[in-house]
Fold Rhodanese-like domain-containing protein.
Amino acid sequence: MASLFKEFLTIGTLTLIGAIYSLVGGLAPRPWAEPELAAGEIYLDDAQALNVIWLDARTYAEYETDHIPNALFFDEGEWDTGLISLMDAWLMQPRPIVVYCSSESCGTSQRIAEGLRKALPEAEIYSLKGGWDAWQN
């Protein structure tokens, strides 16, 4: 009985040491830490590697001034028109779609991405983490 207790104590101690080492050494994410990416977000480097269709959800004036090369303008207020333009591009060559707006705090890209996921359930759709600011940096 005492040897069984010693075995459980040894296993418990080793497990605790391993868990602490993983948390302190950065091998495992801290359970209380916020995830770096929200659901449906993508980093710029990952989006560029995927050869995506870019959707600019900023104002038309901002789009006219500068935008990601080959990005399509998408006005949330003109949903049907934007959806038709997007579908034309996507049906010609299906690939992931990434929506971006001005900055990380802008919620427009996330709203549009969510709506597009409902409208095009077979498409792979993301919002760009950091928005236009990420592209400029």
In short: The beta strands are 41-42, 53-56, 72-73, 97-100, 125-128. The chain has a mean pLDDT of 89. Residues 2-25 form the longest helix (24 residues).
